[in-house]
């Protein structure tokens, strides 16, 4: 029986582990991939205090080394379900069952798919959701980036390190991204924009992407835009399927909590990008991790 099981080892989960283990609680952190979460798919992080700029995977590594110092146990596993047995909770992975007095859910979210023809067919053959993973394959190539938020614009800027040209395709005539990121993109000579337009189909030959059919939403005109690759950044979906039956998610799948990160089940907390909230950032994830790491200590003391 652990004091707390943390599900997910992104910045939120790792910070919760740091706080809980430094309070001398027994902590198990279950992760289905590498520690770091979305930070592993992020090129440069420029808004994490203390670092002018740091590569996402390096920040992941530093956080993990920090957590390891204080005795958190780590397990590989894909969590399928949680069960509330009142005075204790159960976490089920594909092949194991773990028990704890409390649970912290920190499973984050993933990139939404565009849902157009060719997207699945050309995944890994020109269609990508991760510039830091795949950008280097596109040296001196022409790329399309779909979306107008922080991810699309920031990753488009990163892709100009490799690509000869990056064209951002956005469904409106105004970006959603933060002003400072927008300004950098507008000033970058390798970046151009196709406004008021959506990708209708990703096209290619037998092997790789050769372009995309793009429709102007105002005129309904469709044209084929040539490209060697297409990076998709059209928003996020919560990774909360395992918690749906427990009733802690809302209609859209995000987990609702109060300001102490408590869900509707006593002893079950949720933090980071999986929560219903406005600002999904590393700083907010670590802040919530600190709160939940401290809250589980209080919960266990109060329920002794
Ligand atoms: P995540 O980082 O998503 O981590 C969740 C972890 O849970 C993952 O490791 C996942 O494998 C694991 N998990 C999920 N489901 C299960 C399961 N069933 N069982 C076991 N494990 C599971 N933020 C910034 O502050 N600055 C930036 O510059 C910045 N750039 C970004 C660039 C991109 C391209 C993206 C996508 C995001 C960026 N963000 C940035 C946002 C930031 O990365 C996230 O807000 C942050 O990582 C959220 O942390 P988290 O711990 O809540 O979730
Ligand atoms: P986002 O902010 O939700 O933006 C998604 C973008 O995709 C929007 O521009 C949206 O258009 C567009 N879009 C959505 N569905 C579409 C569709 N079907 N077809 C075409 N376009 C579509 O998502 P995000 O950019 O991934 O950012 C997610 C979170 O991470 C945000 O909170 C963001 O601040 C954070 N983040 C922060 C940083 C940073 O701080 N440096 C970097 C990356 C991400 P509309 O604008 O018309 O809605």
From TrEMBL:
Keyword hit for Iron: no
InterPro entries: FAD/NAD-bd_sf, FAD/NAD-binding_dom, Ferredoxin-NADP_redctase_2, Pyr_nucl-diS_OxRdtase_2_AS, Thioredox_Rdtase
Top-rank lineage group of the source organism: Bacteria
A Pfam family matched in the record: Pyr_redox_2
Molecular function via GO: thioredoxin-disulfide reductase (NADPH) activity
Domain FAD/NAD(P)-binding: 2-289
EC id: 1.8.1.9
Swiss-Prot/TrEMBL catalytic activity: [thioredoxin]-dithiol + NADP(+) = [thioredoxin]-disulfide + NADPH + H(+)
Enzyme kind, highest EC tier: oxidoreductase
Keywords: Disulfide bond, FAD, Flavoprotein, NADP, Oxidoreductase, Redox-active center
Cofactor note: Binds 1 FAD per subunit.
Record keyword Flavoprotein present: yes
Alphabetized SUPFAM superfamilies for the sequence: FAD/NAD(P)-binding domain (SSF51905)
Cofactor(s) in the UniProt record: FAD
Complexes and interactors: Homodimer.
Family: Belongs to the class-II pyridine nucleotide-disulfide oxidoreductase family.
Name the UniProt record assigns to this protein: Thioredoxin reductase
Lineage: Bacteria, Bacillati, Bacillota, Bacilli, Lactobacillales
